[in-house]
Design brief:
The structure holds two protein chains of two kinds. By secondary structure, chain A is mainly β. In chain A, 0% of the residues lie in helices and 54% in strands. In chain A, strands 2, 5, 6, 10, 11 and 12 form a six-stranded mixed beta sheet that branches. In chain A, strands 3-9-8-7 form a four-stranded antiparallel beta sheet, with no helix packed on it. The chains are: A mainly beta, B mainly beta.
Chain lengths: 114, 114
Amino acid sequence: AQSVSQHNHHVILSEAASLELGCNYSYGGTVNLFWYVQYPGQHLQLLLKYFSGDPLVKGIKGFEAEFIKSKFSFNLRKPSVQWSDTAEYFCAAGMNSGYSTLTFGKGTMLLVSP
Amino acid sequence: DVKVTQSSRYLVKRTGEKVFLECVQDMDHENMFWYRQDPGLGLRLIYFSYDVKMKEKGDIPEGYSVSREKKERFSLILESASTNQTSMYLCASSYPGQGDEKLFFGSGTQLSVL
C-alpha cells in the first residue's frame, strides 16, 4: 500500500536554528512529492513540489527539499528558521499519472521560539 | 487567486442527523476532493471527483457520500452522523494533470457530533 511517513510529530527550535523535517514514502513507480504547510488559523498551502528534473527544489519562504530516490526520501530544510515558521507541515506523495490522488503524512508540528 | 469556500467554519450536530458540508470553488477546476484532518493522523481522503456527476471513493469513505451536480460545487454528506465523525473537514480543488497539480484548500469545517 502507498504510504508517507514523517519522522517527527513535534519539533521545537529556537529562531535562527536550522531545520530538517524527514519524509519517507512507499510507492511503486514514478512519484510526485509535495510539502504543504498550515499556519495557525490558516488554510493548507503548497510550500514546494517535486515532479521531475533537479532533485533539489526550492519553495516559498526560503524552504527547500531534496528528493533522494535511493532512500525514498523527500526531506524539507531551511537554514535559519523564524518565529513565523511556526506551523504544521505535511509531506504528501502521489503517482505521476492522471487521476492520481495524494497520500499525506501525519504532519509535523513545528514550534519556533523567539 | 483561487478561492475554495466551505459554507460553515463550525458545525455542531447530534448523532443520527444528516449533515451536509458544502464546498464551492471559483476557478473552474475539474478535480475536487474531501479530506478529514485529525490530530496525529494527518489528512485522509474521503471522496474525490474528477468531473461533474463523477465520484470516486478515497481511503475512508464509510459513512459518507458525495454529490457533484455542478462543476464548481462538491458536497459531502454524512447520512447519519456519529461521534467518530467529529473532525476537521477540508475541501480542495485542482486542475487536471499528471498528478503534479497543486491542491487549493478551503479553510475547513470543524464538525462536532454530540
